[in-house]
Amino acid sequence: MQPATAQSLVLKRRKPPAPWRDEVEFVLISEVQIARRVRQLTTALERDYAGRELVIVALLSGTVMFLADLIRHLSLPLRLDFIGVSSYRAGTQAGELIFTKELRLDVQGRDVLVVDDILDTGRTLKRVTAKLQALRPRTLRACVLLDKTARRIEPVQADYVGFKIPDLFVVGYGLDFAERYRNLPFIGVLKPELYQSKTSAGQPWR
Ligand code: IMP
Ligand code: MG
Questions:
Q1: Which residues of 16-50 are buried (b: 16+ CB within 10 A; e: fewer)?
Q2: pLDDT digit string, tens, across residues 22-48
Q3: Could you identify the atom of ligand 1 that is nearest to the CA of residue 124?
Q4: End-to-end CA distance of the chain
Q5: Is any ligand 1 atom within 6 A of the Cβ of residue 195?
Q6: Catalytic status, residue 69
Q7: What is the 134 CA–ligand 1 centroid distance (Å)?
């Protein structure tokens, strides 16, 4: 199996679509760019897992859109399960990890692919892969839509990466800020005053 290489992003800060212009500062990755890259990841997965049956383990909730688009085009037999993991975060600051939903499928001896929205410090993926590795899968790999390499604390890597992005807090296409903005069809950056106002109360926003 050959991992796909990450696509470096040609950084163009595009103007957001009209309905989001009050809140979104700029679009970092457009709908078209996302769709094209997701298809490339699908092709790489089909090539690497040809003749195998995958168990896809997606992390809740940030993977909703990415997962749907990825598997809708994936012509491989697969089973799907979810792990709920939430980092009790205050605004954009990551905190302690809590599991909100456990795996239900048996993954022993299986080809397991963990899917997450974004690889940031690496804490989440490290915890989740350790947990899955203990269940003795045949292979265990990770696929993430976004990779913020500059923020890495744990030495973890994903085998399939959609886009490497700079150190910016992004929302949309499943990614949230305080549980909002997951429904944006693009990946964008909010206006700075929005991030500030939600964290100033000192309350953990989930
Ligand atoms: P890590 O454990 O620091 O690698 O963080 C992974 C999780 O943090 C992701 O699954 C996201 O839920 C969240 N996260 C990290 N960076 C961002 C961001 O820029 N926007 C939205 N969520 C983020
Ligand atoms: Mg998340």
A1: beeebeebbbebbbbeebbeebbeebbebbeebbe
A2: 999 999 999 999 999 999 999 999 999
A3: 2
A4: 37
A5: no
A6: no
A7: 24
Compute, in angstroms, the gap from residue 45 CA to the centroid of ligand 2. 22
What is the value of pTM for the model shown?
Answer: 0.91
Q: Is any ligand 1 atom within 6 A of the Cβ of residue 205?
A: no
Verify whether ligand 1 is closer than 6 Å to residue 119 (CB atom): yes
Q: Where are the beta strands (DSSP E) in the chain?
A: 7-8, 24-29, 54-60, 78-87, 97-101, 111-119, 139-147, 160-164, 170-171, 187-190
Read off the pLDDT of residues 47-65 as tens digits, 9 standing for 90 and up.
999 999 999 999 999 999 9
Tokens 């599991």 -> residue: 99
